[in-house]
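S.,

Sequence below, as promised.
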Amino acid sequence: MEKPKKKILIVDDEPDIREFISYNLIKKGYEVYTAPDGKAGFDLAVEHRPQLILLDLLMPVMNGFETCIQLRKNPFFAETKILFLSALSESHAADLGVQLEVDAYITKPIRIELLLK
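The prediction came back faster than expected:
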């Protein structure tokens, strides 16, 4: 029996970034979901329960920080890895990420080989 694919959710308001990351992750065999804002991302996370969420920080409706707080409040996501994606200075976003129990931080522009590690 085939092992189920790992699920990854990409939450970013930039369509090009969602498409670029999705393409590369699907090519590597992951099941990928995308959302244009934190609210839609949270809803998809509840529906699909991904193992990893790539979360942009600066988005409309609900930003990445707010989304992360909501995810971390929910026991369903206790084991879910969350990576912040942002063009913000690394130290500022990384400091906030530590406070919010984020697993990693990746700066934009995204190097796909770094993300795949």
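The longest strand covers residues 81-86.

Coffee later?
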